[in-house]
Amino acid sequence: MIKELTPGTVVLVGGGPGDPDLLTVAGLRAIGQADVILYDHLAPNDALADARPDAELIPVGKWPRGKYTPQEEISRLLVEHARAGRRVVRLKGGDNFVFGRGGEEWRACAAAGVPVEVIPGVSSAVAAPGLAGIPVTHRTVSQGFTVVSGHVPPGDPRSTIDWAALAGAHTTIVILMGVKYLPQISATLTDAGLDPATPAAVVMAACMPGSRTLRGTVADIADLAAAEGVTPPAITVIGGVAALDWAHEAPAGVST
Q: To bridge 13 with a disulfide, which of 27, 216, 219, 222 should be the other Cys (CB 3.0-4.6 Å)?
């Protein structure tokens, strides 16, 4: 693991689901050594208090339907600062390689001859359900889980997800970035044969202020989310595990 940042190198730091306590020790150490930090709005920005006083902090977040920093500009800044001999940290939410575009940034740096290091982060795909008392797997309920992006709806030419296969997979489905298209996703899954009574939950803001969890079924979870005004960031969990809640008490008859 990285102990000392090297000048001229970019370090991709996965910041976890938003609470600075869930940032790794290695990630916090990198923040404290960086000359330049490019950070997302979903990264644990409170951890920036541990940056050096002379460090340059550059916000490069992508707000849904709001302020947007093009990926090309982010990559350009990473390369520019690294080529100037600076120690560059790219602080992202979750994990760099779980819908985080870390691979794109790595490739851009590599193409420019800039060395890249990676510090993995805790992915919200498992952390958000866990914080809400929902295990994504449980040996008597689910033997696996699939993490998918819901940023485009089923049937969209840009979508490559086989929703029908997911509907019959008998494993947990975890949907990131799926608030807007949750009605279409839920309908597609049930149309493909998923039992409408399958438990479902939406975890909003996970470990951030205002966090809450809605529970229902795949048939009504989209309506519940709309009625409660759910906004990103939020994660949807579909499958038997969504009926579990270790934060309170497991349902009767469920073996632990």
A: 27
